[in-house]
Specification:
Order of helices and strands: HHHH
Number of strands: 0
Largest sheet: none
Distance between the termini: 18 Å
Mean pLDDT: 72
Low-confidence stretches: none
Radius of gyration: 13 Å
Number of helices: 4
Strand content: under 5%
Length: 79
């Protein structure tokens, strides 16, 4: 967490929720978000049968959120 620049006061659950909300705001589909977050049973099936490294679209969008946060000087996660 420290390597990612995330304050220890934020729980994993909070970080995950904020990331998922950010992806919804970036118009990512529920399927893309579920696959990335492994949030549903369908994600388990996909992980077993498909390449789990196919989350490039989500990773790119998350990095854009992080870059935008850094550019605006925001240092806290907000729900």
């Amino acid at each position: 967490m420290n390597n990612a620049g995330i304050d220890k006061k934020f729980s994993i659950t909070t970080i995950r929720k904020v990331a998922m909300s950010a992806m919804q705001n970036k118009d990512k589909t529920k399927i893309e978000i579920d696959r990335w977050s492994r949030h549903s049973e369908s994600a388990d099936t996909v992980r077993e049968n498909y390449d789990v490294n196919s989350n490039d679209c989500i990773r790119k969008a998350l990095s854009e959120c992080d870059s935008a946060r850094e550019d605006s000087g925001v240092s806290e996660l907000r729900e």
